[in-house]
């Protein structure tokens, strides 16, 4: 098993790093509104022009390269609906250009990207529906959750997507959220490590205290576990792997969120410190992942079924 990037992946990674350094990151997010941002159409145009949003071919079961791109976008705090384009769209009849909001059937209330979306993808137990354009007007919600959010009160039925497997689309939606969680948690963990390395107390860096080291090591282990499970799921695309990846990512947030804020002390709760730009996103993504049907329960049922057969 090779955990290193191949030559093509390394080239994409380097090009992505250059693009995101110029057009994303905490400063760009603050320009968009900080933890109440507007949609970053400019970043989306740059990613589109560079060809990064169509890495996975239609019907592809291996979307690892697309997942690596999405992880980089999430780590750079990109405010774009690229996870649906990169990871979900290859399972649909045709590509959708522009922001898309992905929701579960029956959803009513706030939805990420709904106010900016050109279409809604509605995932049900037995069908996937396509609603374009979304019901107008979609009221923009003031949230502080790090994403542009719209209020969906009444979703039209839309068109049923023929020959689209809802279980497959749900699996890729779970993988997409897991990858986004990994990127946000990596940002938060890296920031906390940087803070305790520089911040001194009792003439010692906070990071030199063993209790702090142990806590951040647990964060790193949780994030790395979520990362590799998510990349494995993106490699094979099975519903069981998707449920496992999202379940672990959600559990990892319960370690990363409190620990990173705790170790950054009072600074971790201030507007001028960038930590909340990532951790508030983690809260929103965790809720979105659970809204798609309790991945932990889905994983238990799939594992039990495989053991019983």
Quick description:
This protein is an alpha+beta fold. Helix content is 54%, strand content 10%. A 4-stranded mixed sheet has the order 1-3-4-7, covered by helices on one side. Strands 2-6-5 form a 3-stranded antiparallel sheet, with no helix packed on it. A two-stranded antiparallel sheet has the order 8-9.
Question: What would you say this structure looks like, in words?
Answer:
This protein is of the alpha+beta class. It has a domain at 166-308: Butyryl-CoA Dehydrogenase, subunit A, domain 3 (Up-down Bundle). The chain has ten helices and nine strands. It has helices spanning 7-23, 26-32, 41-49, 64-75, 82-88, 166-198, 210-236, 239-263, 275-291, 295-308; strands spanning 100-104, 109-112, 119-123, 128-131, 139-141, 149-152, 159-160, 200-201, 204-205. The strands form three sheets. It has a four-stranded mixed β-sheet with strand order 1-3-4-7, with helices on one face. A three-stranded antiparallel β-sheet has the order 2-6-5, with no helix packed on it. The protein is globular. The two termini are 29 Å apart.
């Amino acid at each position: 098993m090779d955990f290193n990037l191949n030559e093509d992946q390394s080239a994409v990674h380097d090009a992505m790093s250059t693009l995101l350094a110029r057009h994303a990151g905490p400063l760009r997010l603050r320009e968009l509104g900080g933890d109440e941002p507007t949609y970053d159409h400019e970043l989306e145009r740059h990613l589109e022009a560079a060809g990064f949003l169509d890495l996975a071919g239609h019907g592809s079961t291996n979307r690892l390269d697309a997942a690596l791109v999405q992880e980089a976008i999430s780590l750079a705090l990109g405010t774009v609906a690229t996870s649906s384009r990169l990871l979900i769209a290859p399972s649909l009849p045709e590509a959708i250009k522009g922001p898309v909001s992905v929701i579960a059937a029956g959803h009513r209330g706030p939805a990420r990207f709904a106010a900016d979306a050109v279409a809604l993808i509605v995932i049900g137990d037995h069908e996937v529906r396509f609603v374009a354009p979304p019901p107008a007007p979609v009221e923009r919600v003031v949230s502080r959750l790090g994403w542009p959010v719209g209020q969906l009160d009444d979703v039209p039925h839309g068109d049923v997507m023929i020959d689209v497997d809802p279980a497959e689309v749900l699996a890729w939606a779970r993988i997409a959220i897991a990858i986004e969680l990994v990127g946000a948690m990596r940002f938060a963990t890296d920031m906390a490590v940087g803070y305790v390395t520089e911040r001194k107390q009792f003439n010692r860096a906070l990071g030199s205290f063993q209790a702090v080291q142990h806590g951040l090591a647990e964060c790193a282990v949780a994030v790395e576990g979520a990362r590799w499970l998510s990349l494995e799921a993106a490699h094979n695309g099975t519903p069981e792997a998707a449920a496992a990846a999202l379940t672990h990512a959600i559990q990892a947030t319960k370690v990363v969120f409190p620990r990173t804020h705790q170790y950054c002390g009072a600074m971790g709760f201030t507007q001028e410190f960038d930590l909340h730009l990532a951790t508030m996103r983690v809260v929103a993504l965790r809720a979105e992942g659970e809204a798609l049907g309790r991945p932990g329960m889905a994983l238990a049922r799939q594992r039990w079924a495989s053991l019983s057969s």
